[in-house]
Every structure is written in structure tokens, then in C-alpha cells.
Amino acid sequence: MLAMAMPMQSQTAGTSVLSIRLEQRKGDAAHAVPQNTVFRNGEILRFRLTSQIEGYLYVIDRGTTGSTSVLFPASGHAGSNRIGAGRGYFVPADGDGWFEVSGPTGFDVLYFLVSATPISLPSEGAPGTEATPSDAPPPPSNLLPRCDDAIFKARGECVDGSAGVAPLAPDAPVPRELVPLARSASRDIVLTDDGDDTAVQSAPTAKLPIVYTFRLAHRE
Questions:
Q1: Whether the Cβ atoms of residue 70 and residue 89 lie closer than 8 Å to each other
Q2: How many angstroms separate the CA atoms of 68 and 75, rounded?
Q3: How deeply is 148 buried, as exposed, middle or buried, from its count of CB atoms within 10 A (0-12, 13-18, 19+)?
Q4: Residue-wise pLDDT tens for the chain (220 aa)?
Q5: How far apart are CA 81 and CA 147, in angstroms?
Q6: Which has the closest alpha carbon to 158: 94, 211, 105, 79?
Q7: I need a surface site. Which of 99, 108, 139, 182 has the fewest CB within 10 A?
Q8: Could you give the CA distance from residue 159 to residue 36 in angstroms, rounded to a whole number?
């Protein structure tokens, strides 16, 4: 616009970290939708996360205008970014967990950083804790969501294969809120698509913290 608990000290490479499900609100019901769907402005979505570890989560959204906002933890003094094994969470953490798709056509990029130890968050009112211009440039204007014709014809859906959960390229910038945290974070992940959910696992050579992205495609 995500087993059994193990001590944080024993977290090893190659362990499942989170699973992510994208849900759309239709009436009073929540429906799982393909993560590479190209959405329309005004549609109502949320992320349902299931944690496989005891740890800490920080989620930043960079919108198509280039502005950023903190989606997890919740704002205010009650906000906590601690996550527990086997527990579910909604992103955004504020309100009822839903958000409305808006902004120019393009890809919102959500940055997920998962750590085994507490994350030092920006203090309330510090730059970057609200939607402010990001140091990371927005995607080039020619990188716009496109419907995959083969899938569109077969299912009647508009999907873009580049949308959804993805590793963060080694040289890719991150929003300024994550710069101090992402320097030591691994970008090596393994993804497993299990129906409606995508499981995120640290790569065999990686250790926490890890950082990865979710590209949310939408059109006006």
C-alpha cells in the first residue's frame, strides 16, 4: 500500500520464518486472493501473517508516490513489533487491519525485516514515522503493472508475475527508516507457495535478521 517455538539464540539458517496471505474484503467476508493480482484503487486488502519463530518484525510501505509509512508495529505507545511462534498478525497493525488501495498506477513495495533480537524503532514523531518522502526513488514510470494474457484469458483475472513476495536485490535501496537495520540483514530467502500462502524461509547460508519485499500491483 505472517511449529513449535524455539529460543531466539538457537535460530538457525534454513528455518521457516513467516507465511503471508493476501486477503480482500468483499462485503463482510475476507477472501484469500492471488498475491500477483493487479488491484484497482478503492479495493480493500490486508496481509495475514503467521509467524514460525519468536522474534521481531518491522514492515515499511513505499507507495507509488514515493512516500513511506510504518505498517507494523502499530503506532503509539501500545505498538509492539514482537512476534510469537504459531501466532497470527494483520498488516497494517493499526485499526482493523484493512487498507484501501490508492495512489498512481504502479507497485507499492512493502519491506519486511525480521530479527531474532529487538529492533530499535524510530521514536514517535521522528522523521519517517509517518508518510513522508522516501530516500529510495519510486519505480521508473515504464515499470507499470501488466496483465499476463495467458492467465487472464484462462481465469478472467488480471495478474502480474512480478508482483508478490520477492527477495530484495543486493544493490536495491531501502527506505530510510530501514537503513540502520538493513545493513546487517541478509537478503537471501527461499519461497514456497502453498496454495493461498507463501512461506518465507531463510536461505541455507543466511541468518537472521533477514529483509525481503512484497510488491503490490495496482491501477487507478
A1: no
A2: 14
A3: middle
A4: 432 222 333 344 467 899 999 999 999 899 999 999 999 999 999 999 999 999 999 999 999 998 999 999 988 655 688 999 999 999 999 888 899 999 999 999 999 999 988 877 655 444 443 444 445 555 554 578 888 776 655 566 788 988 999 999 888 888 888 887 877 899 999 999 877 899 998 888 778 899 999 999 999 8
A5: 35
A6: 105
A7: 139
A8: 5
